[in-house]
Structure formats: C-alpha cells, structure tokens
Amino acid sequence: MAEQNLTTAQTQLRQHFAQLVAQNKLVHAYLFAGPQGVGKKALALWVAQGIFCEAVQAGIPCGRCNECRRIAEHNHPDVVEIVPDGLSIKVDQIRFLKAEFTKSGVESRRKVFIIQEAERMTNGAANSLLKFLEEPSGDVTAFLLSANTSQILPTILSRCQLIELPRLPKEQLQQQLIQNGIGAKQARILANMTESVPAAEQLQANEHFDSLVKLTQQWFNMVIRHDPMAFVLVQSKLMPEIVGRDERELCLQLVMLLARDLLLQHLGQDEEVVFTETSIETLGTVETARLVTAVELVLKQSRSLMVNVSFQTILEKLTLRLMDLYTPGTGSR
C-alpha cells in the first residue's frame, strides 16, 4: 500500500510494526485510537500485509504480490474485518469472530482480525469478545480501531496494546484537501473545523456549507461594526439555512473561528487567522479580556443545543452579548 501523505508519526509506526513483524513479536491484540481518517485501518491492513506478504523484506510488505493485493482488496480469507451492522457491532458478529478464532487459517496458520469502530460494540458483543482477549488461542492478531476509546470497556482496553495515531497537522490536512480539488480558502476553513480528509469532505458535502460560511461571516462583521441589521440577517437569511442540528453546530463552529481570529490578530498571531477578511482594525481598541470572554461565550453556546432552546434565540442573544463585548474600551493592544 502506498505510503504517500503519511505523517511522521504514522511513518514511525509503520517502521515500528515492520520490526515487530520481522522479529515475530506482535502481541495478540492492539487498539488503534485516533480521529476518523488518520489511517487506523490502513495501518492495520499494512501490518496484515507484512504478515502474509510473499516478498516481505524486514517486515515491510511489497504491496504487489497476490497476498498483498488480496488484503488491499479485502478479499483474503485469513484477514477478517468486522464493521458495525447498522448502528452497532452486535453479539452475533463477535460470536462469528470467536468461531473463526478457533479455526486454523484457511491458507496458513495465521489469522488477522480487524474490528472497525470498536466503540460501537454492544455490551453483549464487548463481553463476548473479552474472553478471547483474556485467553487468546492460536496464531492470531486482532486490531481494534476506535475514534472514541472512552466508550470501550476498561477490561477490553486493559487487554490491548494501545497505539494512538495523532490527527494530521492542520497544514498537511489543508494541503491534502487542496490536492483533492478543494479551493485554498475553503480548505483552510475545513482544516480548522475537522481532523481528517474524510471528515472535511463530508462537511463540505453539506449543501448548506458554502452559504453558511458566507452568511455567518457577513453576520459577524455586522456584529463587530455594531450594525443592528445583524438581527435582521439572522432572521431573514441565516435561519433558513439552518435546517437541523448539523447546521446549528456548523454555524457555532464558524462563529468560534471568527471570534478566535479577532483574538489571534489582537495577539499578533496573524499567521493562524482563518478568515483574513475579518479585521480587528474594525473594532478599534478592545481589551484582551473582552476578546477572551467573547471566545468563551461562543464555546458555551454549544451547551444550549442540548436543551430545547430556539436557535434563533441563541443567535440573537449572542448578537447582543458580542456587540457589548466588542465595544471599544481603554485597554491597550
């Protein structure tokens, strides 16, 4: 499998696992943890290729032989992948897996199991898996993949070797998005709102994304100019674009980035600014504490989404509070 676009940490992990494969020192169960899209599944499949590769060198698979190709195509009988069935991984899926554990490999003595989104195992499924992890049998290596290890039973966590895959640096994520055909400006926004290419592309696919970016920025610029038409824009233009929870969360994320941009400009960290069109010069002299409080205020609004509060009410109250906080004072820049 190609190693292009890997982070330094991911490259080091491949080198680490290549050594383990070469020395036959793989443990029976690993938990790969990290955000969606950072390469957990790719790493598990790469290690599986190293195990079965016909031309492996120092634990590194060739990526071209029949074994490597079948694994890459998810068509190898001794590499079994489990994915959620609907919203969860069910106990019957783990029972099937346990039955496979007890068999010798179809074409070799080795077997590899990859359980995607392991945090979505039901309690019954997790408890069913636990016995194998407590008493492994045969020449088996299991990879559990998870973006949220806090939802996995502690007893399972304790029986796996935890490997954390860090998120892509924002700069690298932005460059990958640009390479995938996304404009530079939009790629910068997406890289600051998501943690991976798949998550960014999913967000961009929201039909309201482009208009929400434009309208939220327009509203925010009205707010920092203390323009009362900001209230009209909320009702007449923003709310029609906010059709569900996803759009509410997206809108607040954008407001957070805009409020953060003002603080970063105030602190002289212009290279970190996302929306360069929004300038702190519009405000005049505002105290640092007010800019910090504005960021904290926006952060708190996400809690309001958990209760039955009108989102229009949230935005209108936010408009008033931000206008107050962004009133020029006597603080120095």
Q: What does the main sheet amount to?
A: 5 strands, parallel
CATH superfamily of the largest domain: P-loop containing nucleotide triphosphate hydrolases
Beta-strand content:
5-15%
CATH classification class of the largest domain = Alpha Beta
Estimated helix fraction: 40-55%
Pattern of helices and strands: HEHHEHEHEHEHHHHHHHH
Question: In CATH terms, what is the architecture of the largest domain?
Answer: 3-Layer(aba) Sandwich
Query: Order of strands across the widest beta sheet?
Result: 2-3-4-1-5
Radius of gyration (Å) = 25 Å
Determine the oligomeric state from the structure: single chain
Mean pLDDT: 88
Please tally the β strands and state the result: 5
Q: CATH fold name of the largest domain, please?
A: Rossmann fold
Could you explain the architecture of this structure?
It comes from Ligilactobacillus saerimneri 30a. Its EC number is 2.7.7.7. This is DNA polymerase III subunit delta. The chain has 333 residues and is of the alpha/beta class. It contains 14 helices and 5 strands. The protein has helices at 8-22, 40-52, 66-72, 91-101, 123-134, 154-157, 170-179, 184-191, 197-204, 209-224, 229-241, 245-266, 288-304, 311-325, and strands at 29-33, 79-82, 110-115, 139-146, 161-164. Helix 5 (123-134) links the parallel strand 3 and strand 4 (139-146). Helix 10 (209-224) packs across helix 12. The longest helix is centred in the last third of the chain and has 22 residues, at 245-266. It starts with 7 loop residues before the first helix and ends in an 8-residue tail after the last helix.
